[in-house]
What does this fold into?
Amino acid sequence: MPRGKPNPRRINAKLCFGPSHENPTWKNITDFNIVKGRRWYECKSCHAHRRKTRTNYSRVPFERVGFAITELVNRLGKAEASRRIGISKQQISHYCNHDPRWIRKQTAVKILRALSALRATEEVRHKDSIHAGAYLRGIPEKKVTARVHLYKRDGDEQNWKRTANRRISVGVKNPTAARG
Ligand SMILES: [Zn+2]
It folds into this structure.
């Protein structure tokens, strides 16, 4: 292509897969915001849609669902929790390790649904069976007879915190005894 002439193959339009329209839509290139010198991957209306409150894409404080993730992971392990919730294992690890401030509402709803389903069944399963995907492969389930057969015995955060505090208090020497 000779320099200085407009390229006829270049289209001044872009396909937007964003949430503000039902199907992917072709939009003019000027309908996309410029972020750090580049066109944003979604059009202006979708970009704004994600910042609106009370949509599936709006964010909620992570504190509201943090307990649910802890309980799911403690009872099922990360891999099985990711299968039940429908998000990736990496994402779960991110939530467990980094304790973010916000979470997308869509994801929060998924997590709480998975937790309520798990609580309703009241299942107690051997961690080997969960690891092997026994129910998916039709392998007979192992019986839980000891504490080591579970991922973690305490499902909820409160119990976990109590245990952690006890461990800390055991490590600290009694200051009054040391003085005497
Ligand atoms: Zn759009």
Observations:
- The first strand starts at residue 13 and ends at 16.
- The beta strands are 13-16, 25-28, 34-35, 38-39, 59-61, 102-104.
